[in-house]
Write a structure and sequence with these properties.
The chain is an all-beta fold. It is 2% helix and 54% strand. Strands 1, 3, 5, 6, 8, 10 and 13 form a seven-stranded mixed β-sheet that branches. A four-stranded antiparallel β-sheet has the order 2-4-9-7, with no helix packed on it.
Length: 244
């Protein structure tokens, strides 16, 4: 039986959310670096460092998923194109574990490929089948992984404002062959009033996909209004010009 895709609602839980588990101890202590992995076409692997900042051993599980977008939502699906080595590990107190993210086939020819690595801290048990008493937070991280293609790659963004069910949205389509990371999305009215649309990391628009964000109700259409956003870590915001 083919595994089902991970629904968008569950994906949103993967982005560094603390999950409750019935284990002993205080707050979770798992750290993951880097927070974004790119595997160049000339290499077949990159490293991910998992660190245990706690005073007790930690067990972790590492899984890899293909990542696509449909109808403006993120979807994760099982994949055999990448592997995590090792997929399970025990990290000693104040220790580290290097996990290799390995490409199992040739690099993409023309379009960047998108994946996510999900890292879970696993509950520790006093005895088989019996969890320790007490309440503890454990962490789950979702790290973007991108496979660079053999061809040159760059995003090409197209923007439009759409109205639906009484709300207005800014929709961004990426017709390029590489992802675009959007951050600090802001609506700037013609009179200069700024209203936040998506502060911080707004999200990614993958190649050939589109995403949309709801505009604040007070962000009315008008002459001179524009959407400003930081793209791919640029320090300055740039305007997204509606082209259709």
């Amino acid at each position: 039986m083919r595994p089902r895709p991970v629904p968008a609602g569950l994906l949103r839980l993967l982005c560094a959310l603390a999950l409750l588990a019935w284990t002993a101890g205080a707050s979770a202590t798992l750290q993951v670096a880097p927070t974004l992995v790119t595997i160049p076409a000339e290499r077949n692997a990159q490293g991910l460092t998992l660190r245990n900042d706690g005073a007790e051993p930690m067990h972790v599980q590492v899984r890899v998923f293909a990542w696509r977008q449909a109808d403006g939502e993120d979807i994760l699906e099982p994949t055999e194109a990448l592997a995590a080595s090792p997929p399970l590990a025990e990290i000693p107190p104040r220790g580290e574990q290097l996990v290799r993210i390995v490409r199992l086939g040739p690099p993409p020819a023309s379009t960047e490929a998108s994946y996510r690595v999900v890292v879970d801290e696993l509950p520790v048990h006093d005895a088989p089948g019996r969890p320790r008493s007490g309440l503890r937070f454990v962490l789950r991280y979702s790290v973007p992984v991108f496979l660079s293609p053999l061809a040159a790659a760059a995003p090409v963004l197209h923007t439009r404002i759409v109205a639906e069910d009484g709300a207005r949205y800014v929709e961004v389509e990426n017709s390029g062959n590489a992802r675009a990371q959007l951050a600090d999305m802001t609506h700037v009215a013609g009179d200069g009033i700024r209203r936040e649309v998506a502060p911080g990391l707004a999200g990614y628009v993958l190649p050939g996909q589109r995403r949309r964000w709801r505009l604040p109700d007070a962000a009315l259409a008008g002459s001179g209004a524009e959407i400003q956003v930081r793209i791919d870590g640029d320090p300055a915001q740039r305007a997204l010009v509606a082209d259709r």
